[in-house]
Design a protein that fits this description.
Length: about 130
């Protein structure tokens, strides 16, 4: 894993740009995930929990876009499911980060739609307010 890129002394906007390495697609993806209200228990975090989860897995720059676009198919629920699943230990952050580094879209064959569905069921079981 790489060293954290977050600076909690700076704004959410500054941290978002840092996480995205200025990549416009990644910035849009981060904003969509951070604006979601899927995980009611995470609402007090105001979206910073999303970039903290990605940071903990070492997913930055264009890899954020690959995570959201290629692996989660632009689906905010799928993205938040994988991030919460990772935090709960259902998703291996090393495998997720590896899938996100694959520019050839092969990461979607590692983190499949079926895997995201299975992870959703596990997350929902542990977090009853998730997607309620």
């Amino acid at each position: 894993m790489s060293e954290s890129r977050l600076n909690l002394d700076q704004s959410i906007l500054a941290n978002t740009i840092r996480m995205a390495d200025g990549n416009p697609g990644s910035i849009v993806a981060l904003n969509r995930m951070m604006a979601s209200r899927i995980d009611k228990d995470a609402e007090p975090w105001n979206g910073i929990d999303v970039i903290m989860a990605l940071d903990s897995a070492g997913i930055y720059g264009g890899d954020v876009y690959i995570f959201f676009n290629d692996i989660c198919h632009n689906n905010v629920l799928g993205a938040i499911t994988l991030l919460r699943g990772m935090q709960l230990g259902f998703v291996d952050k090393i495998i997720l980060a590896d899938a996100c580094r694959r520019q050839d879209r092969s990461g979607a064959s590692i983190i499949t739609f079926e895997f995201i569905q299975e992870t959703y069921n596990k997350v929902k079981q542990h977090l009853p307010n998730f997607n309620s």
